[in-house]
Amino acid sequence: MKKSLFILALVILASCKTENKEIKSNENNKDSIASISDESLENAIIYEANIRQYSPEGTFSKFTEDIPKLKELGVKIIWVMPIYPISTTKSKGTLGSYYAISDYTKVNPEFGNLDDVKNLVKTAHENGMYVILDWVANHTGWDHVWLKTHPEYYTKDAKGEITHTVGTDWTDVADLNYDNLEMRAEMLEDMKYWLKETDVDGFRCDVAGMVPLDFWENTVAELKKIKPVFMLAEGWEPNLLENAFDMGYSWDTHHRMNAIAQGKETVKNWDERMTQIDTLYKKDDILMNFVTNHDENSWSGTVKERMGDASEVMLALSYCAPGMPLIYSGQEYDLNKRLRFFEKDTIVKTKGKVWPLLVKLGELKNSHKALNSGKNPASYIKVNSSVNKNILIFSREKDGDKITFMANLSNKEATFTTVKEGESIDFLSNEKFVFSKEKPLTFKAWEYKILID
């Protein structure tokens, strides 16, 4: 069993490990971008980079070539899926899982080398973007050196044998034992390595809720002594966001979007989710909104499979609702297949309908305080209509900037009135839009408008 341990003991041991393990900072990789800050997160968009599948070559260098293109989409943070060597023992599929790591401080040679990683980070910084690395603290692959040199770092079953995480089918990885202080200290040092060696700006932490909270809180405090960092938890638990992480996954928001698109839920369920967020989270907690990610795409289906004709309105909603929107590799190119997780399965990079929409949504998100969703977010106000079951209307406002989102979240045409009065500009068409209590509006199935008030 993993147990919470005294932070003081860990700090002392981590300090001892630091004295014995020299890490040199890569000063030459520093560039002019300001350190990541609360202000830089307010209107940020995050991009998940699947290096293996992004190009036919599946390399860091090929992805790096396209970083300027991501700037067109308004991307501020690039989250790179695990870059480390993959274990071959007990591996799944032909190439194995990115999340079965054999060495935390090495680079997967299939993707490139350390200099390629440094160049990726440098190029991102030169284009005004930050880079975070995917970190897997819950487990390692079965080839990891710790299994031979430090078997005590791992969880053991009743027979005294190292085991995978209980309650999962993750048989390709060995579960780490967080009762072991030395392992914790080693993990911290390995994370520090990447900050100092490549100048990355933080980490996305896999299954963060399965690792003891006190480890994260102490670790993040230590990382921040090196430089400001952005920490994304793959988890929804509010306590993760108190002292350790800046942002968590808005899983329940995503589930509501899927269910509404499939006709299983209505706007009422969306409203309940917004109320739930206010109840569970603090005002300065950030949640990540998404219509797809690597797990959803590979295991649950493409956006079209899950959301059908509602795909576009749900994408727009993920940008306009409180939270930071995510773009997953290939989404910008209308990705219409489930990428195989353990095999090579290249994304076809042909611009279709989604790219120009993401350009517009990126412009909207980056330039309007009304969509601030960081530590100092804009307000979210529900606006009623005569058909609240299917018509979603809300306004967001900050410092005099106001945006109204209006959509028919059903597969049938809807005619309705609303209490909103006055004129607005339709952001996507740049046309004038007039509201009146006496004048009914008719929206087609899944029709939406983003209105600048």
DSSP summary, beta strand count: 18
CATH topology of the largest domain: TIM Barrel
Number of self-contained structural domains: 2
Q: Could you tell me the radius of gyration in angstroms?
A: 23 Å
Description:
A hairpin with a 5-residue loop joins strand 15 (422-426) and strand 16. The protein is α/β, with parallel strands linked by helices and 453 residues long. It has helices at 7-20, 38-41, 51-54, 60-65, 67-72, 114-126, 146-149, 181-198, 213-223, 240-243, 251-261, 267-280, 294-300, 303-307, 311-320, 354-367; strands at 46-49, 77-80, 130-135, 139-141, 173-175, 202-205, 230-233, 247-249, 286-289, 324-328, 379-382, 391-398, 401-408, 414-416, 422-426, 432-435, 441-443, 448-452.
Task: Name the features.
453 residues; alpha/beta; TIM Barrel; Immunoglobulin-like; 2 domains; eight-stranded parallel β-barrel; six-stranded antiparallel sheet; 16 helices; 18 strands; disordered N terminus
Give the topology.
Layout: H1 7-20, H2 38-41, E1 46-49, H3 51-54, H4 60-65, H5 67-72, E2 77-80, H6 114-126, E3 130-135, E4 139-141, H7 146-149, E5 173-175, H8 181-198, E6 202-205, H9 213-223, E7 230-233, H10 240-243, E8 247-249, H11 251-261, H12 267-280, E9 286-289, H13 294-300, H14 303-307, H15 311-320, E10 324-328, H16 354-367, E11 379-382, E12 391-398, E13 401-408, E14 414-416, E15 422-426, E16 432-435, E17 441-443, E18 448-452
Parallel strand pairs: 1-2, 1-10, 2-3, 3-6, 6-7, 7-8, 8-9, 9-10
Antiparallel strand pairs: 4-5, 11-12, 12-13, 13-18, 14-17, 15-16, 15-18
Helix pairs in contact: 1-8, 8-9, 11-12, 15-16
